[in-house]
């Protein structure tokens, strides 16, 4: 029974169905329980939260990532799955500490000074939460000094910086410099992302990593977590 | 034509919207995404507040990659210089579909409704493109009245024309920027806005100019 519920959660993450009213990628799914109904049922049955997250949500999202990489899934399909994971994590949040589940790490995310684009950052936020990290979204148009202050106060293991324009991505460099000047650079790993950014640019400004899309951002942070 | 009458003429190209969202020529969207795009596209009118402004300026001279425009405006770009060298005048424009759509996108995104946010954002981009076509047609008619033709549209960020050159585009516009504001980082507010230029000159010279034809960047999303 436990295995059935977990596999249904996984399947509904892949289908991107938050509630029973949602259509899936496949037809004829309306009316069947979605991720939120299944999570509530799983919690009521006393199924281990760890099991729900790793074998249901994370495994489902890994399969979505694979489909995205294979070009079987497109951005909206991936977003629907991320939405389902986001809704599931909200329901699970109060149960995490009680179940003794520790987050893999703490991450601050910000869109840099001068830039207001945040859809990409919001996707990364959901994917990282689903992967077991505590994420604090600092918002948009963030001054380097405000980011430095947040890093000092929150003491995260990671800082994710986002920008969509060539004219604002230069503020990623300023933010990293501000971290250096405040003596915090070696306390936090910096990962950057956004349309104009590249691996090469990340290296040139002294970032620790670059994520070309949401899944890559999670993969890079996972790999830096284990180093 | 007034901008309020334009609002009711917005015909969103759902194929372009899907292209914006990552479906290339081969991608087939799910029925759910297709119906969501159609639903938003059909109901876009109450979310947009179209506005545009354009000026037609003389080109004083072209030297290397610099183009000197009346009003102490200098455009710097090889591609733009090559174009404007062949032109007699340049139309400089700014347009927007307003800030309301962006506010709704932010609300949806903040509520975790990422699919709706992404679809509406892509539709907003297409609405701005649609308005750009309207402006282009108006400039074309004005040019035609003088027996001239117009070039393709170019915006800062295209080819080698840096985004920071938005400042020059806005300087060329003068005081009327259609309600669009430029930040220090050269981001236009509201975000669903387009600024740029259209060259005006003899038909045979300006209408054939397309730098994409000799460009090797095959994966460029702006390829024409």
Describe the structure.
The complex is a heterodimer of chains A (227) and B (224). Chain A is of the alpha/beta class and 227 residues long. Chain A has two domains: 2-96, Methyltransferase, Methionine Synthase (B12-binding Domains), Chain A, domain 1 (Orthogonal Bundle), CATH 1.10.1240.10; 106-225, Cobalamin-binding domain (Rossmann fold). Chain A is built from nine helices and five strands, in the order ααααβαβαβαβαβα. Chain A has helices at 2-15, 35-44, 49-69, 75-96, 119-130, 144-154, 166-181, 199-204, 214-225; strands at residues 106-112, 134-142, 158-162, 189-193, 209-210. Chain A is globular and about 55 Å long. The model of chain A has no long low-confidence stretch (mean pLDDT 92). Chain B is an alpha+beta fold and 224 residues long. Helices cover 39% and strands 21% of the residues of chain B. Chain B has eight helices and eight strands. In chain B, α2 (14-20) packs across α6, α3 (31-42) packs across α6 (114-145) and α5 packs antiparallel against α6. The relative contact order of chain B is 0.18.
């Amino acid at each position: 029974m436990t295995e059935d519920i977990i596999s249904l959660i996984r399947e509904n993450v892949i289908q991107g169905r938050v509630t029973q009213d949602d259509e899936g990628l496949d037809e004829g799914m309306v009316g069947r329980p979605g991720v939120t109904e299944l999570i509530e049922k799983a919690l009521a049955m006393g199924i281990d939260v760890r099991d729900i997250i790793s074998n249901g949500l994370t495994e489902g999202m890994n399969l979505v990532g694979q489909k995205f990489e294979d070009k079987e899934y497109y951005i909206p399909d991936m977003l629907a799955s991320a939405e389902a994971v986001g809704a599931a994590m909200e329901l699970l949040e109060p149960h995490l500490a009680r179940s003794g589940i520790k987050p893999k790490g703490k991450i601050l995310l910000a869109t840099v000074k001068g830039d207001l684009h945040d859809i990409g950052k919001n996707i990364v936020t959901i994917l990282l939460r689903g992967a077991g990290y505590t994420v604090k979204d600092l918002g948009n148009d963030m001054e380097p000094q405000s980011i430095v202050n947040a890093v000092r106060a929150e003491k995260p293991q990671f800082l994710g910086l986002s920008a969509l324009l060539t004219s604002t991505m230069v503020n990623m460099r300023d933010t990293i410099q501000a971290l250096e000047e405040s003596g915090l650079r070696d306390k936090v790993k910096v990962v950057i992302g956004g349309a104009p950014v590249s691996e090469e640019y990340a290296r040139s400004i002294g970032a620790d990593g670059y994520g070309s899309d949401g899944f890559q951002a999670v993969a890079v942070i996972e790999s830096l977590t284990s180093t | 034509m007034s901008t309020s009458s334009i609002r009711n003429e917005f015909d969103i190209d759902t194929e372009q919207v899907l292209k914006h969202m990552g479906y290339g020529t081969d991608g087939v969207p799910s029925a759910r995404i297709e119906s969501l795009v159609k639903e938003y596209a059909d109901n876009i009118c109450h979310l947009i507040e179209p506005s545009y402004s354009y000026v037609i300026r003389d080109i004083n001279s072209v030297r290397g990659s610099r183009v000197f425009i009346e009003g102490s405006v200098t455009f710097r770009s090889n591609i733009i210089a090559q174009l404007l060298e062949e032109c007699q005048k340049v139309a400089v424009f700014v347009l927007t579909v307003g800030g309301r759509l962006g506010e709704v996108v932010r609300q949806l995104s903040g509520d975790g409704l990422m699919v709706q946010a992404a679809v509406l954002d892509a539709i907003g981009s297409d609405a701005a493109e649609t308005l750009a076509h309207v402006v282009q047609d108006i400039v074309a008619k004005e040019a035609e009245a003088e027996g001239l033709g117009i070039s393709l549209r170019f915006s800062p960020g295209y080819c080698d024309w840096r985004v920071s050159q938005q400042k020059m585009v806005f300087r060329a516009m003068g005081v009327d920027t259609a309600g669009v504001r430029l930040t220090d980082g050269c981001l236009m507010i509201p975000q669903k806005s387009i600024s740029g230029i259209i060259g005006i000159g003899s038909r045979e010279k300006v209408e054939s100019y397309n730098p994409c034809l000799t460009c090797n960047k095959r994966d460029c999303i702006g390829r024409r």
